[in-house]
C-alpha cells in the first residue's frame, strides 16, 4: 500500500508542509510505504499538449511521455493507493506548480474518445489547502471553485477530498513586515486553537482509518 505526498508550497516547514508531514506520519503508522515530494525542488512543466499520450495504437495509453523531474513522480502516483497534495492558496488558486502537476497527472488518463478514464487503477486523492481566508469566507467564496478546480483527479477513479486549513499564521513575527491588515493576536489565537486539530486530522487522513 502506497501513499504519495506532494508539497505544493515553496516553504518546506510551514503550514502546508507541517500538515503534510503529519499525514506522512499517519500513513507510516498504518504501514503505508510513503514518498514525499517538495514540488518546488523539481524542474518540470505542465502538459505540453504533445498528444503523445493520445496516439493511436500506443501500448501504454495512461502515460505521460514528457521526460523531466516529474516523470518518476507520475509513475509513483499511478501506482499509489492514496495521493495527498498540499497547496497554499495564492490569489484564490492553488499554486501554479500544483496546477502543472494536475495537468500532467490527469491528461494521460482522459480518453478523448468518450471522456472516460483510461486509468486501470484507483487512487484516492486528498487535497489540503492552506490560506489566510477564514473558514466562513472559504465556504462562501472558494469551496465550489476548488471542487471544480480539482475535478480532473476523478480520472484516477478514486474519491477526491478537499480539506481547507483556514486563517493560517503566515509568519512567526508580523511586526517585521508591512502587514497591517492582519491582526497578529487573532492569527496566533486561531493558530493555537485550530492548528493542532488540523494536524491530528491530517494524521488520521494519512492513516486512512474510519
Ligand atoms: C503570493 C501569495 C498570495 C496569497 N494569496 C492568498 C489568497 O488569495 N487568499 C488567502 O487566503 N491567502 C493567500 N496567501 C496566504 C497563504 O495562502 C497562506 O499564508 C498559506 O497558509 C501559506 O502556506 P505555507 O505556510 O505552507 O507557505 C497568499 C500568500 C502568498 C505568498
Shape: globular
Question: Which small compounds were modeled alongside the protein?
Answer: flavin mononucleotide
What is the first-to-last residue Cα distance? 17 Å
At the first level of CATH, what is the class?
Alpha Beta
Number of separate structural domains: 1
Helix and strand succession? EHEHEEHEHEH
> What is the total tally of β strands?
6
Number of helices: 5
Given as residue ranges, the uncertain stretches (5+ residues, pLDDT < 50) are none
Q: Which value, in Å, is the CA radius of gyration?
A: 18 Å
Provide the CATH superfamily: Flavodoxin domain
Query: How confident is the prediction overall: mean pLDDT?
Result: 97
CATH architecture field: 3-Layer(aba) Sandwich
Q: From the 3D structure, determine the CATH topology.
A: Rossmann fold
Structural class: alpha/beta
Largest beta-sheet characterization: 6 strands, mixed
Binned strand content: 15-25%
Proportion of helical residues: 25-40%
Describe the protein:
By secondary structure, the chain is an alpha/beta fold. It has helices spanning 15-29, 71-79, 96-106, 135-149, 184-207; strands spanning 2-7, 33-38, 82-90, 93-94, 123-130, 157-165. Strands 1, 2, 3, 4, 5 and 6 form a six-stranded mixed β-sheet that branches. Strand 5 (123-130), helix 4 (135-149) and strand 6 (157-165) form a beta-alpha-beta unit. The chain starts with a strand and ends with a helix. The chain binds flavin mononucleotide. Flavin mononucleotide is lined by residues 9, 11, 14-17, 88-92, 130-133, 168, 170.
